[in-house]
Design brief:
733 residues, alpha+beta, 25 helices
Length: 733
Amino acid sequence: MTSLLVVITIVFGWNLQFLTFDFEFEKFFPKDHPDSQAYIEHTKQFGYDNDYLHIIIEEKSGIFNKEFLLRASQFEKSLSDIKDVKNVYSPLSLQHVIKTPTGLVIFPLIHTDSPSKYQLNQDSTRVFSNSFYRSAFSTKGDAISIYLNHKHFSDQPRSDKLLNSIKEKARLYGITNIKLVGKLSAAGVFVSYIQNDFSKFLIGSLLLSFSLLVIIFRNFKSALLPFLISLLSIIWLFGIIGMLGIKINLLSSLLPPILFFVSMSDAVHLINALKRSTAKTKASKLKDALKVVWVPTLLTSLTTAIGFLSLVWINTEPVQILGVFAAIGILIAFLVTFSFGLLVSSLTNYSSSRKTIGIPSQWLNFIEKRKRLVIVGLSILLAFIIPGISKLEVNSFLLDDLPQTSDVRLDFEYADAELGGSKPYEVRVEVADSSLSIWDKKVMDEIVKIEDYLLNEFPIVKVQSPATIIKYLNMVNNGGLNGNFNYPNSNIEYEQTLRLKNRIDPKRLDKLVTEDSKVGRLIGFFPELGSKETGIRNEKMLNILSDQINGEIINYRITGTTYLIDKSHELLSFNLLKGLLTAIIVIGIVLGIYFRSFRLLIISLIPNIIPLILIAGIIGWLGISLKMTTSIIFTIAFGIAVDDTIHMMSYYLRSNKENPSERMKDTILHAGNAMLVTSLIMSAGFALYLFSNFGATFYLGLFVSLSLLLALIIDLTILPLLLTHFKKNAINR
């Protein structure tokens, strides 16, 4: 047995080197949702809308500086040489076109190669008086945005290589103040925080829990066993993950603390049973301990695994990965506890002579004398906290989990404040009448309604669409004057404008219209408003446009990563809560079958549902939004907390004592003390996460730790009162 355990551990330990981290936004989209399916089809025609970087370069003395423009232009041209860069656009390389009686006159929008002061003044006036050009510059005129479109990839090393290449080019051309805004920069910092927290707090949890075990058990050997069981369980689970090549994402990074503390709970209950046994031989002690903990531990492992497996019904890959591997990890912890744990226990003499930290022997008498105070106190607490649940709202901000001082967060906020926005926005337009194309005026009349709404009502500072192309060509057709950057109303003007379309760079058209001219897109950038506010504006826009757009000419829908991220946060938040409800129902059914009593089923759920209600109310009162990273807290807290309740009730029901109060005293002495130890260690372990600068990790630590403490208090107050006041024939087996 020992050799087999060593071999398995070595094999899984070897595969830990293959663990990789991932933060692919697209994987959080529900796979079978109509919006997801539409987006997949859209990417086949136009590519991914978040495969971009806004490269913002600042010059405090002003952009229209001869020396700066030369360096900036050279830097921009060099970007195309970087591997994985597809296209680069900026006002630095744009040309201004004017139609004259003798033909088209073309000259640089901004003269970057040894311009005169007069030329720079002219360029500045031209740029800042035209909304189409103006949006590429900061409101203060001291920064310019270069738009870079790159290939789609998800592996972080490749992303880092591209970002580093851009920074190296900037250093080469003397660009000292640069900001990178886009998926790559955001994903990189998210992965960095996940990696740091994953390793830092796992090590911290191991050290803290072992120290607490030594203090509580006052015995090195007693502390070592649960520590080793937890460590082995984590190695086995993540060895499997590494072996299968599954990447660790924001949710699966939560697996170590979940598994660590669940496995430790199993081991502590086993050790407590061994220490409480009065048998003389090691074999008899093991037999006695197994009678006490085997069935309850098996039951807690199954119910907790079932609870996490309920997440599989949520059709989102990261959530499913969390559910499946949390369940696998919990069953691994059970297997390790009753293989390695029993093996070590058979070689160790666990003496009951050493006193450990535990619940006072008079605890039951204490709470029974004050049961009215306990019930009234809980009622008052619930009455105060429950109204906070009505204040809960689903709302997410893309970078809300990053520290306020994070460079990436500051860069995005700069883009929001100075350049009109950092988040991509996209509307897909399809020709409904097969006899028409995007470029027919009937169709374009409808598209321009959408563009005008986005520009004036949503509002989005800069929008590019087929209608934008027409407006630009109309300006060219009318002397290149900025005041003529508008949509031609008459059919004659439109046809005259459209004739210039063939003069436009085909790459710019490919970005906006399919080759068959049947599908187009409106793209733009807007500030981070939060998913709630963005949803309100989207709904308002769709309601207004439904009365204005002719559905027989075009079909349209909002799409893109921003829309789906906001949508997925909303769907995931509700689905995770549905998953929690499913877990409660399924676990309730299992417990009902095991206890053979509906009343005992209700009793088993009360101590675990009340903490969730309290946590939900507290979150509401604190004004913390429900999103993916906060909604998952409820499932984790319930899955962990229910274990102790099952251990306590199982021991109570198996006790040989006839008197309910005596039964409960014996239960508190045995299962209650183990429950106290595990709850305190788990709460302290999760409290470590309060030192994280990453919002998702911080809130996990805060609310899981708090929920476990609340569950402990209720298990030691309400649960004993409920059990001891049931009729004897309702609890006797």
